Automatic annotation (TrEMBL):
It comes from the Bacteria. It comes from Streptomyces violaceus (Streptomyces venezuelae). This is Helix-turn-helix domain-containing protein. Gene3D superfamilies: Winged helix-like DNA-binding domain superfamily/Winged helix DNA-binding domain. Pfam families: HTH_17. Residues 3-51 form the Helix-turn-helix domain.
Amino acid sequence: MATPAEVAEYLGVPVKTLYQWKYRAIGPNVHKVGRHLRYRWVEVDAWLNAQAAYDLAV
């Protein structure tokens, strides 16, 4: 599982953006482990792939 800082670096966005996405329920799925937020890499990659799933050939 990854920390918000690791996911933010991977996606190239600020950590604050991840928190906004969580609040708006538009980002990768996030889990609470105790008091900490953690991301599963598989879910981050699935979310990222879904973002690029539109067709530009139209």
